[in-house]
Design brief:
Order of helices and strands: HHHHEEEEE
CATH topology: Nuclear Transport Factor 2, Chain: A
CATH architecture: Roll
Number of domains: 1
Low-confidence stretches: 16-23
Strand content: 25-35%
Radius of gyration: 21 Å
Structural class: alpha+beta
Largest sheet: 5 strands, antiparallel
Number of strands: 5
Mean pLDDT: 87
Shape: globular
Helix content: 40-55%
Length: 141
């Protein structure tokens, strides 16, 4: 009677450990999905001030847009945001390619840019941070 009980406890322990590992990975993926969705909505609405909160705090000062960049952002409206699926590059980094459609508010001319995003996961804060900077709308693709 004792051996079947020990075997059952061993199987349950293994299943529980496997579930914990899966939950940890899913949680990290869930946080990534929520972060990318929230960032996309922020950019779609043209809220550059709020978008800066997604920048890695360690790099925020160097990645923050200049006064000229902020003036450029105020001159455009985002009319489209088409993202490719995020591609993992190691355990704590993903890349995502996004095509952003812009309309100049003064001239009503439309154009698109490609935003090559790099996101890194910070284990301490359990957050994904944008390390590639905000979209460069001065470039033409």
């Amino acid at each position: 009677m004792r051996r079947p009980l020990i075997g059952l406890l061993l199987m349950l322990s293994c299943a529980l450990l496997g579930a914990c590992a899966t939950e940890k990975m899913r949680s990290k993926q869930t946080v990534l999905d929520e972060t990318l969705r929230s960032y996309a909505a922020t950019i779609r609405w043209g809220d550059i001030e709020r978008a800066q909160a997604f920048l890695d705090p360690k790099l925020r000062e160097t990645l923050a847009p200049s006064a000229l960049d902020l003036a450029r952002y105020r001159q455009v409206a985002v009319s489209g945001y088409s993202e490719q699926p995020a591609t993992p590059v190691g355990d704590n980094e993903v890349h995502q390619l996004v095509q952003i459609e812009l309309v100049n508010l003064n001239t009503q001319s439309a154009r698109s840019i490609l935003d090559r995003q790099v996101w890194r996961y910070d284990e301490a804060s359990k957050r994904w941070w944008l390390v590639s900077g905000l979209p460069d709308i001065s470039r033409k693709e």
